[in-house]
Structure formats: C-alpha cells, structure tokens
Amino acid sequence: MNITLYEKMVDGELQKISDRLWDDKLISALNVANFLLVNGKEYEMIEGRLNLDLNVFEILLVTVHSEGGVNRP
C-alpha cells in the first residue's frame, strides 16, 4: 500500500515529507507505534486518513523536539 506522510507545520500548513510503498508488516506496526523516524527526524503520528480516491493511506505527523516536546500547532 502507498503511504504518504505529511508534517503539520506550526502555521497549520501541511508539508509532504514522504511517499513510500509499505508492506503488510509495516502497516501492522501502525497499531503499536506512536512515533516515526524519517530521514533522521522524529515525528509523532497524530491521525491517519485512507484516501480511496488516490489509493493511499495518509498519515499526519508533528515534529518531536530534542527536548522531548512536540511541535503542536
């Protein structure tokens, strides 16, 4: 399945950070994971949307700061 990751910026804008093909094992891991590492940057998963028009699962992320806080708009 195609997965698209979007980062929600402080101003509310969405920035696409990744388009990837995930296998069943990675998709199953979404049930237990709350955080993702993408290109060395840590994100918290906020919500997901199954976009049937584009045949893609979209995941909304916010940045996790090195101090442990989350960049919530």
Please give a quick description of this structure:
By secondary structure, this protein is mostly beta strands.
The main sheet orders its strands as 2-1-5-4-3
Number of strand elements: 5
Fraction of residues in helix: under 10%
Percent strand equals over 45%
Describe the protein's architecture and organization.
The model has no long low-confidence stretch (mean pLDDT 89). The chain has 73 residues and is mostly beta strands. Strands 2-1-5-4-3 form a 5-stranded mixed β-sheet, with no helix packed on it. A hairpin with a 4-residue loop joins β4 and β5. It is built from 1 helix and 5 strands. The longest helix has 6 residues, at 24-29.
Search tags:
73 residues; 52% strand; mainly beta; single chain
Task: Set down the secondary structure blueprint.
Elements (H helix, E strand, L loop, with lengths): L1 E7 L5 E8 L2 H6 L5 E4 L2 E11 L4 E8 L10
